Amino acid sequence: MIGSLRGTVLERNAPTHVLVEVAGVGYIVAVTPRVFGELEPTTACFLYIHHQVREDAQTLFGFLTREERDSFQILIAAHGVGPAMAMAILATHSPKGLQNIVITSDLAALTMVPGVGKKTAERLLVELRGKFDMLDLPSISGAESQASSSLGDLREALVGLGYDNEEIRSVLSELNPATDATLEKVLRDALQILGARRA
């Protein structure tokens, strides 16, 4: 089983696969869009790997940190969560963010993930409770918790303004609000982005 790869990025196949050469052998690795953006062609890289073996195929899933890989393994161990959904969750939320979502039972944040409906999110919040504690993730500061709460309020505000989940997911991926940002400030920034897209 392959647990990690250290080599050179040869190709990027947008938006979810990279070809990594290690000692003359090329490995196709599935990654999240965020990881994809970090791996430039011809650059050296190190990836933690989850190696999935099936009767008909073998797939390598690559992550920049051990916490991401371990979070992926926790997710696919949950009922009804396959690799595709686990990667979608990690593309939307960091391990630390996931831990906070589970602790606060933030159903809205989890349903922002493509393919995760309300019932699935409710089940996951129950199944994942306590699972991320073993990862020894950095504690979540009060400011970061407040920022997470502001984003939850932002989601509700955008829904109330008539934006659909896809538009909201997209704008949230672009926003990087300061931990002390007010809802009004974040909402104004989000509406500017959405307005520019619809123009």
From TrEMBL:
Coiled-coil boundaries: none
- Every copy of the DNA helicase Holliday junction RuvA type domain together lies at 1-62
Domain Holliday junction DNA helicase RuvA C-terminal intervals = 151-194
One GO biological process term is: DNA recombination
Any one annotated GO CC term: Holliday junction helicase complex
Pfam name, any one: HHH_5
Q: Name one GO molecular function term.
A: four-way junction helicase activity
What are the record keywords, sorted?
A: Cytoplasm, DNA damage, DNA repair, DNA-binding
Q: Which InterPro entries match?
A: DNA_helicase_Holl-junc_RuvA_I, NA-bd_OB-fold, RuvA, RuvA_2-like, RuvA_C, RuvA_C_sf
Q: What is this protein called?
A: Unannotated protein
